[in-house]
Structures are given as structure tokens and as C-alpha cells.
Write a structure and sequence with these properties.
The complex is a heterodimer of chains A (699) and B (162). In chain A, α3 packs antiparallel against α8 and α23 packs antiparallel against α24. Chain A is mainly alpha-helical. Chain A has 25 helices and 8 strands. With 162 residues, chain B is mostly helical. In chain B, β1 and β2 form a beta hairpin. The N and C termini of chain B lie far apart (87 Å). Classes of the chains: A mainly alpha (699), B mainly alpha (162). At the A-B interface, β7, β8, α15, α16 and α17 of A face α3, α4, α5 and α6 of B. Chain B: Keywords: Nucleus, Ribosome biogenesis. Chain B: It comes from Forsythia ovata.
Chain lengths: 699, 162
């Protein structure tokens, strides 16, 4: 049985070693590296882990100690008392209690310091907290060191205790010191107990095992007991007393009739009488040992009388067990361990007595069934064919019949039967509403809607809903009256339609502006910054300006004229009619509207740019490489024009003026400003032919 | 079968619609459609999202406390069926709805009370401030009314007509 095997208790380390073990384990098993640059929560976690780990380890180890050491109240009283005798129960309990307190203290320390660590704000602080925590825990253990040492000693001693099973068949040997108990046990078992001439050779209990009738018996050798008052007994004697008190065993009281143990029979008898209370309910056998030195018959009368008294006592126990009173052979026996005479007989007698007693007890106990397989119940063989059934009285039979009747009556029609009648599972569906308890049974099959107009009907169900609804309607009525009384809203004066138009126009313009701005803003990065010269949408014309101004209600003519005057138009307009502001010329077929194309091709733009540009200068963007190339181009074209003119004039005198105009304009464009004045002069004053010839000569 | 309220927008979730999300603390969130569900997953607060009922209630756009809301309450105790009670309840629901709708309309009217006047005032202001965008100051001086100016007609047209 494990609980009586004290060899399994783990070693209890000494205080210092304990601390060392735990701290080194903490050092090894938790992370070791932390820097002050880490996040504070990480640092805290690091140190908290160390503290908790240490606490956990201490807790575990101390718990194992506390759990493994037997609790004296929980084990068999024999062992409890034995341990008490050996180690002093109070001292033992105190030691364990101190360990327990230490464990709790360490737990508390850890908890407190973990709480503090949660708010540590620097690595140094956290570290010092951890150092403090561990230090305190170690101090606790140091304080508890002596208890640990004590427990270790106990453990070592306990491990060496003999493993005695208190419940099995046991034979107990007791008597004065030196009477021959150990020699006896040596003879019947394989135990090798010390046998020496001095008293108290055996200082503790020894166990041996012997067999009898295929059963194993424990034989326990006790140290000698002296005849002293109970309080004066020492530990060794108390061991045997404990064994006697708690083990249900057969007791062999040894008597040294020779007196060579140093004590007379009288003394031994006195001892016997003083401890005979311990022999209650135990089969007792009085063994007279050392008969080789002195035979039982040869002792003095007084001694004999004493021995008979003892025998009488022993007989009492025999009678108490309901055994055979006449058999007094098994009560007083003689033997000599030296010559081995009668040793076996003693053993047999003891075993027999014990066995009988145990069997009797077992028969009376409830656990008989467990042992039943070891008994044999004899079945009588049928001796003839006559039947002999069990005899049941009439009344019992009637009662049984009646009961069966009642059970059959109560059987009601089950739903399942109903279902089967109506077509089975798939066809018939039971009406679950059949057993509803309602105020009116007609309502049982009512269908109530669950949803109405987007509401759950069940949310509205209320016994006094009508009443509340009434209140609500009343309230509503009152409120409506109030509303009627409230004054009407005053409308401000409505805006007249023209103003509304203006407002609409304003809003439209605003929207447009915003839209344009947004477009401009969104395309700003990808839009090229094109100078106004190359404006292909032709947004910026004076026509447009004029239109816009007129919609604003202004007279645009002045502005248009100014704009036009600023832009140098055709020469004809300017030079001929300087006075006429409008520049209307009868000869001017095109009228007042200057042709944009012509204007663009005219000199005005180039003039506005730079007045000092020589004719052959190459303007970037023209497409000509250098001035030489330009000269060639101009001359080439002018030759052609001259030819054309010549041809035209010679072939037909009615040359329309406008055609010439066109041609000369072309020349002007090629020739530069000099050509312009030149050609203009030519056209005006000289004849056309000579003008053409002149041109030709000019090259 | 029950009609539930969407947790996000407070509209009714009919059976067969929407998604139900159960959190680890056993709180159930019901959504009427994936729009609400996705908004919830983005951890948006319905009280800040303009189109939800929660926002409207918090910002006073819709009625918050009213006697009509008291009628509709989830009662956890089952009542024994009574035909009369059922009939009355059904009729009452309709009436309560009507009352509620009326009250909401009144609430709206109260909210929009001074709106017209304000709008008109603003329009007048705008017109006065921005009249320069459609009518040149010169024209305004000549004709000080806040209306569109007469578009200037060219003299040539008159002449041509002649």
C-alpha cells in the first residue's frame, strides 16, 4: 500500500540549497536580456515574469513537501501514533505549518511586488523591485530553514521504517527485554534481527514474514517493555506499546522462566498484568521461553501460581472469542529458541488462533460477499423426481394479480396511437393546440398574425391597451386644438418675377465660374500654358466682348473701337481716314468689320512687336533657317508676283483693283514695312506697269 | 418570426434579409443590408453617419420621446391568448401608427418653421450683393432697380432697318 510507503517522499532540500536551486532555475528558464531602451511594458513584463516564476517554483516545491509528508490524522492510527512517538506530533505539525506559512508569505510577496511592478516607470526601478521581491522570498525560506532540516531528518528516518501493513494477519511479539523475542523471529522468518546479550538490543519494530496454511503472516518484533508507569516510558518502549495498541494481531507474550534476562517471573507477571488491557480482543498466547535452561515444571510454586494467573487471563481472551474453552493447549506454550524445540508449535498455534478469529469476524461482517467465492455452498442432489416448487402464500398471489390489473386499466390512448390510426407519421400532423387552456375553447384554433404594417404584433399586446389608446387619442385631440389656435406663419414679401430672373442669372453665373475654376484647377498640371496668341477657341474677340458688355447693359461701341484702335488694323483704314473715327471708307469693300484673317496676316502684329526689325531677320517660328534663306524666299516670291502683275496688266487693262490689292498685300507681307510704304506709294501715284517694272528692277 | 431593427440604421429587418453578427460577449448585431454591415465593420459610429436614424434622433431631426413609442415594447412574459385582446391590439396598432405619423409631421413642421422667411431673406441679400455680376454699375446707376438690364441694341441694326 502506497500510503504506508514512506520511501516515496522527495528529498527536502536545506534552506540555502533550496534558494540556490530556485534562483538558478529562474536564471535559466526565463529570458535574461533586457535593455533600458525597450518599451516600458516589455521591461515590466520581463521582471514580472521573473518574480512570478520564482514564486511559482517556490510554491510548487513547498506544496510537494506539504503534500507528501503524511498527515498524522489521515493515516492509520498505528502509524499516526508511531510517528507521534518517534517524532512528536506537535513538532512535526509545527514544521509543516511553518512551511505552509512560508508558502503563503511568498505568494503574498509575489502578488504585492507584481502589483508594484505594473507601475514601474524605468528599468532601474523595475529591476530593484524584482531584486527586492526575490530577496524577500529568499529571506522567508532562510527563516524556515531549520524546519526544512528537521523535515529532512524525519524523512530519512521514515524511509527506514519497516513497512507494516496494519490490516493483514499480524503476530506481535512482546515481553521484557532480553527474553528471546528477536531470536524467535529470526527462527521463524527470514528477518535478521540483532541478538545480543544486553538489553534493548532491538530499539525499533522489525517485521518478518512467515507462512502458514498457504497464507502469509507478518511477524512484528518489538523492543522490550519495562514495567513502568505509562508516562515514564521512553520512545523505544512506546513503539511497542503503540504496536500493541493499534494492530489487530495475535499477541505472543514472552516469558523467560529461567530468569536469565535479569528479571524474575514476578516482575514479568507484573508487567503482564499492567499491560493486559492492551490484549483486548486479541488472541493471546503466553510463551515460556528458554526452557533449555529451566523447564516449566521446575519453577517455584509462587512462580507457577503467577504463570497460572497469566494463563487464566489468556484463557479469558480465548473464551471471549467464543472459542473452545477446553482447549488450553493453545494458550500456554513452552519453547526454546536455542534448541528450536517447540518454536514451530508456537508459530502454528499463533497463526491458527489468529486465523480463526479473523474468519469469524469476516463471517459476521458485511463484506461477506467479497469472500463468498472462497466458500462453497453445497447443493443437494435430487433424490427423486418429485417436484418441490417454492411455496408462495395465497394472499401474495392475489395482491400481485390485482396490481397487474390496475396497471392495465390506467393505460390511456397515446398520441402515437392516434397518429397510427390516422395514417402514420407523414400523413397525420398532431394538433398541438388540443390541450390549450384558454378562456373560451373556441379560440383554440385561432390564427393570430405576428406582423402588421412593419410592427411585431406581440410587442403591442397589452391587457390595458384600450385604455392607453384612449388616453393617447384624447391627448392627440387636445394637441390638435392647440395647433389650430397657434398663429399662422407670416410669409415675407415674395420677390417680383424680374428680380427672380436676375437672381437666377446671378446664380447661373456663379455656378459657371465655380465650374470653370474647378476644371482649371483640376487640369492645372496637365494643361499647357498657351499664350493668348495661339488661342484657337477664339474666345477673346472684340465681338464677344461687345456682346458681353451689352448684356451687362453697357454701350460697347466705345470699348470695341478702342480695342480695335489699339490693335493696328489695315493700313488703308488708318492712313486714309484718320479723322473718321469709325474708319468707314467707300472704297473699303470689306466695310467696318475688319477681316480677322487679313488682320492677322497684316503687319499690325509684327509692328506691335518691334518697330526696328530689318526685313530679312528671321523670326523664330517662321520656319526659315537664317536670313539668307529668307531673302531668297522673298525674292523668289516677289519675282513671281511681279510676273503675275505684269502679265495681268498687259493682258487686261481692266484689272480689278481688289485683285491688285491682294497681290500687293501679299508683297507687303513678304517685303516688310518698307515694301508696304513702297507698294502703297506705287499703287497710289504711279502707273501700275511702271510699278511692276520697278519691282522687277529692284531685284 | 420577428421583425428586428438594424443596429446601424434602425430600419426594420424582414425575415430572409440581412446579416446577424454575434460577438464573443454574446451581443447580437443585426444589419438590414451589406451597407450597414460594412459600415459597422469600419467601426463607424451610427450617431455620426448622417443617414441613420440614430443620427437623426441625436441631432433632433426626428422625434425622440413620445407616448406612441411606449406602446411598442418587447415584452418577455407570454400572455395567454385572448381573442378580444388580439382584435383590439390589431385595431390599436393602426390608430397608433396614424397618431405617430401625425406627430412626426408636426415635429417636422415645427422644425422647419422659420425656414421660408429665412430663405427669402437670404435670396434678397444675395441679389443685392451680387447684382454687379449681371448689371454693370453704370447701368445700375441709370436704372437703380435690382433687375436684369436691357441689352444694348446696336445702332447699325436700326440703320439697316432703315
Amino acid at each position: 500500500m502506497v500510503q504506508y510507503n514512506f520511501k516515496r517522499i522527495t528529498v527536502v532540500p536545506a534552506g540555502k540549497d533550496f534558494i540556490d536551486i530556485i534562483l538558478s532555475r529562474t536564471q535559466r528558464q526565463t529570458p535574461t536580456v533586457v535593455h533600458k531602451g525597450y518599451a516600458i511594458s516589455r521591461i515590466r513584463q520581463f521582471y514580472m515574469r521573473k518574480v512570478k516564476y520564482t514564486q511559482q517554483n517556490f510554491h510548487d516545491k513547498l506544496s510537494t513537501i506539504i503534500e507528501e509528508f503524511p498527515r498524522l490524522d489521515d493515516i492509520h492510527p498505528f502509524y499516526g501514533d508511531l510517528l507521534h512517538v518517534l517524532y512528536n506530533k506537535d513538532h512535526y505539525k509545527l514544521a509543516l505549518g511553518q512551511i505552509n506559512t512560508a508558502r503563503n508569505l511568498i505568494g503574498k510577496i509575489a502578488k504585492d511586488y507584481v502589483k508594484l511592478l505594473k507601475y514601474g516607470d524605468s528599468l532601474y526601478r523595475c529591476k530593484s523591485l524584482k531584486v527586492a521581491a526575490l530577496g524577500r522570498m529568499c529571506t522567508v525560506i532562510k527563516r524556515v530553514g531549520p524546519s526544512l532540516a528537521y523535515l529532512e531528518q524525519i524523512r530519512q528516518h521514515m524511509a527506514r521504517l519497516p513497512s507494516i501493513d496494519p490490516n493483514t494477519r499480524t503476530i506481535l511479539i512482546c515481553g521484557y527485554p532480553n527474553v528471546g523475542k528477536s531470536s524467535f523471529i529470526n527462527k521463524i522468518t527470514r528477518a535478521d534481527v540483532d541478538v545480543q546479550p544486553y538489553a534493548f538490543t532491538t530499539k525499533s519494530l522489525f517485521v518478518g514474514h512467515t507462512d502458514y496454511k498457504y497464507l502469509r503472516y507478518q511477524v512484528i518484533d518489538t523492543p522490550g517493555i519495562l514495567d513502568r508507569p505509562f508516562e515514564d516510558r521512553n520512545i523505544i518502549e512506546m513503539c511497542s506499546i503503540t504496536a500493541l495498541a493499534h494492530l489487530r494481531a495475535a499477541v505472543l507474550f514472552f516469558l523467560d522462566i529461567s530468569g536469565s534476562c535479569g528479571y524474575s517471573i514476578a516482575q514479568q507477571a507484573a508487567l503482564f498484568h499492567s499491560i493486559k488491557s492492551l490484549f483486548m480482543n486479541k488472541p493471546l498466547i503466553i510463551v515460556c521461553n528458554k526452557t533449555d535452561l529451566q523447564a516449566l515444571e521446575g519453577i517455584s510454586e509462587d512462580d507457577k501460581k503467577l504463570v497460572m494467573e497469566m494463563k487464566a487471563e489468556a484463557m479469558k481472551t480465548l473464551i471471549g472469542q467464543g472459542g473452545e474453552p477446553s482447549n488450553d493447549e493453545g494458550v500456554l506454550l513452552t519453547m526454546s529458541t536455542l534448541t528450536e524445540e517447540g518454536v514451530i508449535a508456537v508459530k502454528n498455534a499463533a497463526c491458527e488462533r489468529l486465523l480463526d478469529q479473523r474468519v469469524e469476524l469476516k463471517m459476521k461482517s458485511k463484506k461477506l460477499n467479497d469472500c463468498l467465492n472462497r466458500f462453497h455452498v453445497a447443493m443437494p442432489k435430487p433424490r427423486d423426481q418429485k417436484e418441490r416448487p417454492p411455496c408462495i402464500p395465497e394472499a401474495v398471489l392475489e395482491a400481485k394479480a390485482k396490481k397487474a390489473e390496475q396497471a392495465a386499466e390506467k393505460q390511456k390512448k397515446l398520441e402515437k396511437d392516434l397518429e397510427d390510426e390516422n395514417g402514420g407519421a407523414g400523413v397525420y400532423s398532431a394538433s398541438l393546440r388540443k390541450h390549450y387552456i384558454l378562456a373560451n375553447d373556441e379560440w383554440k384554433e385561432d390564427i393570430m398574425p405576428e406582423i402588421l404594417d412593419g410592427h411585431n404584433v406581440y410587442d403591442f399586446v397589452d391587457p390595458d391597451i384600450l385604455q392607453r389608446l384612449e388616453e393617447l387619442e384624447r391627448e392627440e385631440g387636445m394637441r390638435q386644438e392647440q395647433e389650430a389656435d397657434d398663429d399662422f406663419e407670416m410669409d415675407g414679401a415674395e420677390m417680383p418675377p424680374e428680380e427672380q430672373e436676375a437672381l437666377a442669372e446671378i446664380r447661373k453665373k456663379k455656378r459657371l465660374l465655380i465650374q470653370q475654376h474647378r476644371i482649371k484647377k483640376s487640369t492645372a498640371e496637365s494643361r499647357p500654358t498657351v499664350p493668348r496668341k495661339f488661342d484657337k477657341d477664339k474666345k477673346y474677340t472684340s465681338e464677344r466682348m461687345g456682346r458681353q458688355l451689352s448684356t451687362l447693359g453697357l454701350d460697347p461701341t466705345l470699348a470695341i473701337n478702342r480695342a480695335r484702335s489699339k490693335s493696328r488694323g489695315r493700313k488703308r483704314e488708318r492712313s486714309i481716314d484718320k479723322g473718321d473715327q469709325n474708319g468707314i471708307d467707300d472704297m473699303d469693300v470689306d466695310g467696318n468689320q475688319p477681316n480677322k484673317k487679313l488682320r492677322f496676316r497684316s503687319r499690325s502684329q509684327s509692328r506691335s512687336r518691334s518697330k526696328s526689325r530689318p526685313p530679312y531677320e528671321v523670326v523664330p517660328g517662321e520656319g526659315l533657317k537664317d536670313s539668307a534663306q529668307k531673302k531668297k524666299a522673298i525674292d523668289a516670291s516677289s519675282i513671281q508676283v511681279g510676273f503675275i502683275l505684269h502679265k495681268l496688266y498687259t493682258e487686261s487693262c481692266e484689272l480689278s483693283y481688289p485683285v491688285l490689292e491682294v497681290a500687293l498685300k501679299a508683297l507687303k507681307g513678304l517685303y516688310g514695312y518698307r515694301g508696304e510704304s513702297y507698294c502703297g506709294g506705287l499703287v497710289g501715284s504711279r502707273s501700275l506697269l511702271s510699278a511692276a517694272d520697278d519691282l522687277l528692277l529692284d531685284e | 418570426m420577428r421583425l428586428e431593427k438594424c443596429w446601424f440604421c434602425s430600419s426594420t429587418v424582414y425575415p430572409g434579409h440581412g446579416i446577424q453578427f454575434v460577438r464573443n460577449d454574446a451581443k447580437i448585431f443585426r444589419f438590414c443590408r451589406s451597407k450597414c454591415h460594412k459600415n459597422f465593420k469600419m467601426k463607424r459610429n451610427p450617431r455620426k453617419v448622417k443617414w441613420t436614424k440614430a443620427y437623426r434622433r441625436v441631432h433632433g431631426k426626428d422625434m425622440t420621446q413620445d407616448a406612441t413609442f411606449e406602446f411598442e415594447r418587447k415584452r418577455n412574459r407570454p400572455e395567454r391568448y385572448d381573442r378580444h385582446v388580439a382584435e383590439e391590439t390589431l385595431k390599436a396598432i393602426k390608430k397608433i401608427d396614424k397618431v405617430r405619423v401625425d406627430r412626426e409631421a408636426r415635429h417636422y413642421a415645427k422644425r422647419m418653421k422659420g425656414k421660408k422667411a429665412q430663405v427669402q431673406k437670404e435670396a434678397a441679400n444675395e441679389l443685392e450683393q451680387s447684382i454687379h455680376m449681371v448689371k454693370a454699375p453704370a447701368a445700375l446707376q441709370k436704372e437703380p432697380s435690382l433687375t436684369l438690364p436691357k441689352v444694348y441694341q446696336k445702332q447699325t441694326e436700326d440703320r439697316m432697318e432703315e
